[in-house]
Amino acid sequence: MPAAPPPKTLSTRATALVRRIGVPSVVLYAALVFDVLFTTQAALDDHGPRLVDFGLLPGILAMAACGVWAQKRAAVAGVTGGGVLIFSTLFIHAFHIPPYSSVLPKVTITEVVAGVLMVYYVARRARAGVAFCVVGFLVVAGLIAVFGRYSSVADIDGGTGTQALLFGLLLLAGPLVPAIAARDRSPRADPRTRRLHRVNELAMGQWPLMGVLGFALLFEFGYTYSNTVRGFPILFCSIAAAVIAVLSPRRPADALLGLAGIVLLSAVITPFLQLRSYDYPVPGGIPATQIVAGMGVVVNLTRARGLSQSWARVAVLASVVALGAILNSSGHEGLQTDPQVLSVLAFAATLMLGIAIAVGLMLRSRDAQRTQAVQTAVSDAQTAERMALARELHDVVAHHVTGIVVQAQAARMMAEKKPEIAVEAMARIENAGVEALAAMRRLVRSMRGDAPAGMSEFSEQATTDLGADLRKLVESANHGVPTSMHLDLPPDLPHEVGRSALRLVQESLTNVGKHASGATEAFVVAEVVGDQLHLRVTDNGRETAHRPAGGSGGYGLVGMRERVALLKGRLSAGRDPDGGWRVEAWLPLAAGEDTEGDE
Known about the structure:
By secondary structure, the protein is an alpha+beta fold. The protein has 18 helices and seven strands. A hairpin with a 5-residue loop joins strand 6 (about 570-575) and strand 7 (about 580-590). It is flat and about 130 Å long.
């Protein structure tokens, strides 16, 4: 008789519930319950205005939701949580809601717990650049919440500020250390990570500008809180300028015109806000954040297009800055007309503009040098390959053909005298012809790039079905690493694109077997996105410490780049931030038709 199941006591049910929803969520819900009870009690007591404390609940509930959301979409939830902290602080400051303190001054327990969870999940799951940006934004939002919920800066004593910074540093380091140690290393198949990859590239290239803009915004935000809410329109213009500056590498020319419009709007509305009566800091008539953003956009524009194609837009921005200086640099109401002051401002503006242009041109020169170096390396590799083919042609094919000619001449001369010798010569000619034909085939494969050195003899000729070819390639497992796939391919893929794609994946998997030490999994993605074929091959191995068996010719990546360049596509290869190696290519589908037509 089977034993009766154990009774479901309150303890076992609680344990099962905790396991199902997770310990982090349980801690967050407990903090939420405490804050709701505490806020309700504070709102209904006789201290201060009744019900006003309920104004804390929207921010508390929103932060709790972001903390739960972070377990699924860490980066998006982190950005949303930082925005919730900032707008909650604005709401508290505008309606004079009395916040209470927990571990951090003026920050509720739910906000602290949710912030810690978001930092942990972002640092663990997001790419390095994305994690840096999101965690930095959460830190800035936390500082705004701590110091922005005081009525004024005078209310913050030194001990409170030091304690807040110390505890904040501990709360930041606490989740970061285990999150970095437990970062996910598995290959990702979700196509949505493609957008995060672009954000990661943007962040890694723009992090100095983002850091300076973050500090400028923080000081501008603090000064706005300390003096008057009249400065909030200017603050919002500065935030918009900072966003445009960070995104400017995508479309630098349009970004500069957009920034000029933001600066013009800020300069025009500043006199109507009467900020001079409150000594609002606008050095030279332009807020510091907008100055930094302007320099950043000028750097990115001159880097992308050079000075000859950028001077007209730069002149537009300079004109707007000059207008702002005339309108807002005076210490009293009215325009700035002092020639001495205007000359000093013009000199300072010219100096900063010159620095930005010089930095942009320096980066442009460095980019050109890198491009030239890559082109030189490709040209050298092509020359070396042609020399190798010439040696192969001379040493192998010419040798066999010469033997055929000599034996044919001997057979012709001896045919009448000794026919049996001619028959023997014919057999030798046949063997030499077979060897010559095999050598010619190897040479043709090498010239076409269909069988680079180190690759197997699998599928020397690609079929018209790329999906079937890739499945056959993976099922053969010649590279020795278990491989999974995600394929989303149409049946009418151009043959040239499909053949090149097969060779790219084939070479990538071969490199996995040769170079990915300790790899236990590889992942192949082949999908059509818009008018491009997207390929990605990743593994979870580590860089080998010794030379692979048989050596490495060093032409694998060069050959892949040549293939992609012929189709006017893009290729990236390097260490994956999550570990292992990543090869990613984008091949325009129309390029395959043009290439076939050219042939």
